[in-house]
Amino acid sequence: MFKVENDVLDLRFNRQKMKTLESMYNISLMAELTKNRGMLSLHLMEGLFSVGLYNTSEEKTVKGQKALDIFESLIEENGYVNLNNIIIGKLEEDLAFLFHNA
Predict the structure, then answer these.
(1) What is the pLDDT of residue 49?
(2) Per-residue pLDDT at 1
(3) Going by C-beta distance under 8 Å and a sequence separation of 6 or more, which residues neighbour residue 89?
(4) Mean of the pLDDT values across residues 24-32?
(5) Is the distance from CB of 65 to CB of 58 less than 8 angstroms?
(6) How far apart are CA 40 and CA 48, in angstroms?
(7) 14 to 20, 75, 79, 90, 98: CA distances (angstroms)
């Protein structure tokens, strides 16, 4: 979870979001994770963050440029590796079925 401007934000992933992301980027998420040993490209990390960002204070998704701006702020504040690990951790939590034999 993140706190940004008095809002509590979280990442939430589901199958439909992953299908949308894979279609947009023309990739297999699991193939990318396996190929890169869990290290996401900056482009893919930004995409995952953008589709998964959720404002728990307002109970709604954060979309578009606002999600991208928050991503930029958090990657500067937390660093690439830390934000990568947060995203991967939420993927494992929300989509555990993807990681059973990974």
Answers:
(1) 97
(2) 82
(3) none
(4) 94
(5) no
(6) 10
(7) 10, 23, 25, 10, 11
CA angle 35, 46, 12 (to 5 degrees): 95
* Residue owning tokens 């998964």: 52
Domain extents in the chain: 2-99
Amino acid, res. 97 = F
Q: Where are the alpha helices (DSSP H) in the chain?
A: 15-25, 29-35, 42-52, 64-78, 80-94
What pLDDT is stored for residue 79 in this prediction?
97
Starting at the edge strand found earlier in the chain, the sheet holding 7-11 runs 2-4, 7-11, 53-55, 60-61
Query: Strand, helix or coil at 17?
Result: helix
How far, rounded to the nearest angstrom, does the alpha carbon of residue 5 sit from its chain's CA centroid?
20
Mean pLDDT of 59-74: 96
Query: Tokens in use for 52?
Result: 């998964």
DSSP, collapsed to helix, strand or coil, labels residue 63 as coil
Give the largest Cα separation in the chain, rounded: 39
